[in-house]
Amino acid sequence: MSTRVWRAGLLACVFALAAWGQSDANKGQIVGTVYDPNQAVVPKATIKIRNLETGFTRETFTNEVGQYRFVLLDPGRYEVTAEAPGFAATTVSGLVLNVGSTVSADIRLQVASTTTLVEVGETLVSVAPAASAVVDRRALQDLPINGRRFQDLALVTPTVQVDPQRGQISIAGQRGIYSNVMVDGADYNQPFFGGIRGGERSNLIFTVPQSAIQEFQVVATGYAAEYGRSTGGVVNAITRSGSNEFHGEAFYQLRHKELGWKTPFDRQSLETQHQFGGALGGPVRKDELFFFGAIERQDSRTPRLVFFPQLRRVTPGPATAEAYDYHMSLETPFTQTNDGTALTARTDQQFRGGSRLTFRYNFSDATALNATTTGTRIEPTIDRAISNNGTEKDRTHTGSTQFTWILSPTVVNDTRFAASYEIRPRLTNSRTPQVSSVIGRFGGVDFLPTVQDDMRIQITNGLSVMRGTHTLKFGLDYNRLGTFQSFGFNQFGAFAISGTDPVVHLDILSLGGSIPNRFDDRSVTYRRQIGNLLAKYSVHQAALYAQDSWRLSSSLTLDYGLRWEGQWNPTPEANNTELVNLVKGFRFPIGGFDPTVIPDAPAQFMPRFGFAWTPTISRRTVIRGHTGIFYAATPMLLFAGPMNNFRWPPGDVSIQLPRSGSTVYRDLLAVGVDLNRYSLDKLPVLDVELVQRAVAGGGAAPDPLRGANLLAMASDFENPRSFQAGLGLDREVARNLFAGVQLHYVNTVHLQRNRDYNLPPPVIRPTDRSLRPFFGLRSGTPRPIPTLGSLWVRESGSRSMYRGMTLSTQYRSQRLQFGAFYTLSETFSYDDNERDATGVRYENSFNLAPEYGYSDLDMRHQFTGYAVASLIWGIDVSATFRATSGRPIDPRTGADTNEDLGGPDRAYKAPGVPFQRNSFRNRGYRTVDFRFLKSFPIRERARLQFSCEMFNMLNFDNVVYSGTNLNYGLGIDPATGNPVPPPATFMRLRLPDGSYDPVNIQLGNPFQAQFGLRLIF
């Protein structure tokens, strides 16, 4: 083969390699055009492909314009051979096909008598309508990863962050619960809570062995019509398969608490963690049947400490000594565990002609003592007593099968079936009333004990048809979701004190002093569960789609399609006719609702369009763009309260004290309960009937739901819908070195928020010169329905807007690969709740305009990247890095200043003018993780690797303002109308002695090392 021919073939192939975002779910495509020496197309050429690892083969022919396409291929390394009469066969070898991508390999045939072989390397130029990023097997195997949760490596890709409330993956400024995580082409989302399988436990434990993941793809925006149920991007992962050679690994990793530094608050609180496991895969019958299995285990122990930083701001006196001493007695160390096991087993059968059948089973089990969380990270020190904690358990089963059926060289059908089941029991450390104040919490957790399970059955079918320059795909997708839970707030009662003054709160909790009776203050509320805690219901989701990839020429492709989704929700059990009639026809000041209806979403249509253009002959430059409509699915948790609150008996319904204008102490005293007789460690669990009599004013309780807080769905509730648009450019600036820019725009409407309908219109009090609207529920103002408490209605009236620009550079060769990404973005929203179970977040239900501001997810600057390098003497080094600007801070008063018994009230910047939500900015975050790996050859195909990983290697403090240090105060003096400066604690980083204020928290951990051994064979 002449040098000229080799170079021509290499140029035609390398510069044509292209990753098309989101093709064929967990599969990929190889496309190209065959030319003769004069650059004329060659129709009816025979094209054969072969997987270099499994021996898989398939054959097709070029169309009338010389184009060919292979769809639904398993990711891996391939060779493509082209043959035509009068020409020598030409083989292009070394093509790397990633998940969800399309590799384009043009081939030039030569007039010769010998076969031409062209070896190509991997390229990162993406001529795709939608930008995507792939984390491949080498990155998963060699990059430092803190916890072996594959999804954590998504953070090295552009626009991805962890949402601050639930810890789920947020993409392009969207809520984490609306991201779609897929494994082997099937949804791997927790249908009840939203986010990845495992729910909030997935932040701390792996549910799929890392060694079982081959690679994954992250698509921020603009994915094809084949994909849905997400406004927040797609994470598309695939598991490993066996091949024609036996391969395996075994590993052990140790992270000891002594292999790290103290926190910036001078505390040693790092985990001791053991992780071990292995994987094995290979042939059962060469070229036909393969197996793969992996199992991993984690045992973790972390020292924690109960610590109440607010007590350090108090000098105890006679009025506060009792509560002060009791809280100090609760400041004890404890151990938090985090243990889990995960395994994956898979088989693959290849048939002659290219059809393939895959079975996979995945199991995980996790237990964590003293680790109760609602998704937020667990701090080294917590202001919750051991009694206010519990045990987290989680177990998942997932099975899937996929059959890719080659009907003809141009017609391929792909069928997938998946079923998953998850159960999550959560136990309490104490069956006593919860007491919460600015100081902290003690007593049993107000939402424990509970158990919740859910299941998903999914059937998907897609038919791909290649006709001329068009590749058509038609598909359907059906999901049946079911759930059962035994859950209820305030099962043993819960006392809550509003405000931010620790001295006042200690006085309220203590006997004697300026507040002589315990809980005898209008800032105190008490709630008691009266329901049977049960809920069981199902949701049905269906989708149809049609899409076309039209190759107008070798340099321009149009992708367009239409997706339809329908969601059929459960019907509430609303057999409490008296309550339904009371609420259903009532016109509240902000509107009305029907508690007997949860609206379906049967008509969700999503047109999508994209293009990719390589404007130069060299194809070194790619310009791409996309736009479309995208809908997300609503997590089933949002239906739980509306399903059971209006039945008899109710499921999760609490009644509330005090009565308007009274106090909790006086209301309970009227029914014979004197809270002064009980010490703080032995507060009573009150009978439901007794609390009902207290709510009724001391007599008989004619209405058992008097004072109840209820949940319902808005009569016009809709699933979130986003409009997305993007424009990008990539350029190969040198061999294997690529640079690019990508613009993203996402405008999302119909986002969920809770809103209290049972509120009286606010008034401006004559003596209040700050002109703050006042509801007066603590002072005696009646609600519109005075016999009920809050009526939280789940509306879909919120919205958000994201716009961002990402600059990227990537390099990939055999010995070195790296990527660096800088994203400049803005995210605005009205509300950012990640499916809040109860409560509200706005300052004034009658004026939501000030709520539109910077989103909690707004991250103005984000710089991320990774690097993997092979050095001499069997040494490999790798690193990941991440630096972000700070999240917004909402300037709050720290108390229920307007007495709406709702969310935190906002400071005012002028009389009658509240601060915009999230007007201030917190500190940023930086971290560098590093891994050193040394290989020792054992024999030709086996080696032992020693690794040392350093997390937060440079020990950045990453301390951010938190807790009461976020409270701005009133802002405007209600007596004078003059500005009031914020307290000295607002955004205070350090104390006068130079130490960090203990009210703040550290994001992430201080420096910690981990050592490991891995045998690869």
Structure description:
- With 1017 residues, this protein is mostly beta strands.
- Helices cover 6% and strands 44% of the residues.
- The strands form nine sheets. It has a 22-stranded antiparallel barrel.
Tally of helical runs: 8
Calculate the terminal CA-CA distance, rounded to whole Å. Answer: 37 Å
* Sheet with the most strands, sense and barrel status: 22 strands, antiparallel, barrel
Low-pLDDT regions: 1-22
Shape: globular
Give the topology:
Blueprint: H1 3-14, E1 28-35, E2 46-51, E3 57-61, E4 67-73, E5 76-83, E6 90-97, E7 102-104, E8 107-108, E9 116-119, E10 132-135, H2 137-142, E11 160-162, E12 169-171, E13 180-183, E14 186-187, E15 213-219, E16 234-239, E17 247-255, E18 272-285, E19 289-306, H3 321-329, E20 333-337, E21 339-350, E22 356-368, E23 381-382, E24 390-408, E25 411-428, E26 434-436, E27 441-442, E28 450-467, E29 470-486, E30 494-497, H4 502-509, E31 524-529, E32 534-551, E33 556-568, H5 577-584, E34 601-613, E35 621-631, H6 637-644, E36 654-657, H7 664-669, H8 688-695, E37 708-713, E38 721-734, E39 737-756, E40 763-764, E41 773-774, E42 791-812, E43 816-829, E44 853-854, E45 861-870, E46 875-884, E47 888-889, E48 908-910, E49 913-914, E50 920-921, E51 925-939, E52 942-951, E53 959-960, E54 1001-1002, E55 1008-1016
Parallel strand pairs: 1-7, 1-8, 6-9, 13-16, 19-23, 26-30, 37-42
Antiparallel strand pairs: 1-4, 2-3, 2-5, 5-6, 10-15, 11-12, 13-14, 15-16, 17-18, 17-55, 18-19, 19-20, 19-21, 21-22, 22-24, 24-25, 25-28, 26-27, 28-29, 29-32, 30-31, 31-36, 32-33, 33-34, 34-35, 35-38, 36-37, 38-39, 39-42, 40-41, 42-43, 43-44, 43-45, 45-46, 46-51, 47-50, 48-49, 51-52, 52-55, 53-54
